[in-house]
Amino acid sequence: MKVFNTLTNKKEEFVPIKPGEVSMYVCGPTVYNHAHIGNARPLIVFDVLRRTFEYLGYKVTFVSNFTDVDDKIIKAAKQEGITEKELADKYIEAYQDVRRGLNLLFPTYAPRVTETMQPIIDFIQKLVDSGYAYEVDGDVYFRVTKIKEYGMLSGIKIEDLIAGASERVDDNDKKESSTDFALWKKTSEGIQFDSPWSKGRPGWHTECVVMINDIFDNGRIDIHGGGQDLKFPHHENEIAQSMAYHQHPIANVWMHNQMININKEKMSKSLGNVLWAKDLIQELGCNVLKWLMLSTHYRNPLNYTEDVIKTVKKEVDKVENVIKQTSLYLQVNHVQNDEWNKEVVDRMVDALSDDLNTSLALTEILEQVKRLNQVMRSKNKDNLEISKEYQTLIHMLDTMGFVHDVKVLSEEDISLYNQWIQEKTNKNFESADILRKQLQEKGII
Ligand SMILES: [Zn+2]
């Protein structure tokens, strides 16, 4: 398995901390609204990464959090006239619906900030005790200048940050340095938690580090993922805290997915072009949305246009049609065989193992669709061969997390179908027509 590590800016051979196991963390959402298509991209990309590792035989521990304490949550709760907890619960459920709708594997753990408060406070206290953090008027800030390695992920230099900040007049003058960031904020509004410093709330950058520290040995994981926009300051600040606490950069491999544009424009509320994942799942279906997301490499920006959707729909139709037809054929002919061609699935996984070359993996699926169509169209049909090519395609779809709902036929359905074929062969078109209508009504053909 090779992955592009944004910490070293190189494609590297993946070496796990524990042989045969993969520990992964992907930054989750702040739950104050529905997931948009931009939130769906990391969900899909890192799900495929996880499935690839699982196909290769690794035991994967996959963690993704929910930020359920935030200014945006307070504001949205006020607007909707409900409590912050009610609001967070509502959007967490909506987020899980998107996971279900996209046939994604659920995280092994999905911690919430409100349920991780004591570990967060303990973590901050340790940073204060060791001189990496300091309290001012109930706030706690992290001393960025104490971390020599600061900027190791983003390439940003502390000197440049200080120079940039000196030009801004509105900077928080409580901090020792403009580069320092809040670990704890004293607050007067919204939900507050008791701490040794004040009634308040933790800073966002601390949450992820503590959750990783809480779940994984020595607070160190194999892979930390997230959107490109989180690289700085969020991930850089996660690393800074981990360097202070553990003297290691929290993750051996950092992976960042690029953003999505709508008709070459950035998606934004002000442009009114925000696309919600739940709507697209309804409109396009799980397979089309996933195929679209995986047709572009995760490290390239994805451009969402009507033309792209059209192309993707055609490709997904090819897959779904051949599955439907073959499943029907195998059932009416009572062919039952679980054999599949591992070499073909391995070839697709080889593409995924090359830093998630998903577009090549999709091409392998389309190649398999061609092979299956060929054996289905053959004059001398070999039922075992058809079954094997079919099962191979099913394994490919499962490995990437696509859905394939096929109708399971009853004996009654099968005999109805066989009658129809018989009447057609005997050129009894009237009764064949009646049978065809019945089969159509049952959704069999
Ligand atoms: Zn995070």
Q: Give the overall pLDDT as a whole number.
A: 95
Number of helices: 15
Estimate the global geometry from the Cα principal axes. Answer: elongated
Helix percent band: 40-55%
Question: Helix and strand string, N-terminal first?
Answer: EEEHEHHHEEHEEHEHEEEHHEHHHHHH
List the helices and strands and how they pair.
Blueprint: E1 2-5, E2 10-13, E3 21-26, H1 37-55, E4 59-64, H2 71-80, H3 84-101, H4 117-129, E5 133-136, E6 139-142, H5 158-166, E7 181-186, E8 200-202, H6 204-215, E9 221-227, H7 231-246, E10 251-257, E11 260-262, E12 265-266, H8 277-284, H9 286-295, E13 302-304, H10 306-332, H11 342-352, H12 358-377, H13 383-400, H14 411-425, H15 429-441
Parallel strand pairs: 3-4, 3-9, 9-10, 11-13
Antiparallel strand pairs: 1-2, 5-6, 6-7, 7-8, 11-12
Helix pairs in contact: 2-3, 4-6, 6-7, 8-9, 9-10, 10-12, 10-13, 11-12, 11-13, 12-13, 14-15
Zinc ion binds at residues 27, 208, 234.
Structural commentary:
The chain has a four-stranded parallel β-sheet, with helices on one face. The chain has a four-stranded antiparallel β-sheet with strand order 5-6-7-8. Helices cover 49% and strands 13% of the residues. It has helices spanning 37-55, 71-80, 84-101, 117-129, 158-166, 204-215, 231-246, 277-284, 286-295, 306-332, 342-352, 358-377, 383-400, 411-425, 429-441, and strands spanning 2-5, 10-13, 21-26, 59-64, 133-136, 139-142, 181-186, 200-202, 221-227, 251-257, 260-262, 265-266, 302-304. β3 (21-26), α1 (37-55) and β4 (59-64) form a beta-alpha-beta unit. It is elongated and about 90 Å long. The protein has 445 residues and is α/β, with parallel strands linked by helices. It binds zinc ion.
